[in-house]
Write a structure and sequence with these properties.
Elements lengths: L47 H27 L1 E11 L9 E2 L8 E5 L5 E6 L5 E4 L13 E12 L4 E6 L7 E4 H6 L2 E5 L3
Parallel strand pairs: 1-9
Antiparallel strand pairs: 1-6, 2-5, 3-4, 3-7, 5-6, 7-8
Length: 192
């Protein structure tokens, strides 16, 4: 580093002023840490990065919630169940039975808003005699005939359902979704 002072000449009649030093720096390299001269530029930390991270996390949570809702609304379940229809008194429980009044009878499943979400038809000829109500005290006779059914591809979007013999939800039996999935729908028909 070199410091020089130029000579000053005063013009005739000019007031005297002290000389002002002029500093000239002569350097062969810029000071360390100056960006662009071999030293890395300082990293800028912006609050915007955290904003993007938070936005990404919120977007991921929303996406998972939407996917879960869509999956729940499109989920399907299979319902197994049985209908015990009254009307027997001469068969031994466990023997085969049939009822022409049950042939072609529909089994309907209604969602919690009353919309029909599944239906099937009973055979009516492949039942099993049961002593459901114990109405015959003079022997071990069947007082009903049990028919099984399966409903596949029933919407699993609701928490509660009604299962009915026929198409009238008001005459059905209520079940939770969990009950239908674990133990099925066991209903009776024609017994007062």
């Amino acid at each position: 580093m070199t410091q020089t002072q130029p000579e000053r000449h005063l013009a005739a009649g000019a007031p005297w002023a002290p000389p002002q030093p002029e500093v000239h720096w002569v350097a062969t390299q810029p000071p360390a840490g100056w960006p662009g001269y071999g030293a890395p530029a300082p990293q800028r930390h912006s609050g915007m990065r955290w904003g993007w991270i938070v936005l990404g996390v919120v977007a991921a949570i929303v996406a998972v919630a939407i996917i879960g809702t869509v999956a729940q609304k499109t989920a399907k379940m299979t319902i197994n169940g049985s209908v015990v229809a009254s009307g027997y008194g001469t068969l031994t429980p466990g023997t085969g039975c049939s009822m022409t009044s049950m042939e072609g009878k529909s089994i309907s499943v209604f969602g919690s808003r009353g919309d029909l979400v599944g239906t099937t038809m009973l055979n009516g000829t492949d039942g099993v005699a049961v002593n459901q109500w114990n109405t015959y005290g003079y022997g071990n006779y069947a007082d009903g005939c049990r028919f099984t059914f399966t409903l596949a591809d029933v919407s699993a979007a609701d928490d509660y359902y009604t299962v009915a013999v026929g198409n009238d939800a008001s005459k059905g039996v209520g079940f939770s979704k969990e009950q239908l999935q674990t133990s099925g729908a066991q209903i009776t028909y024609g017994h007062s």
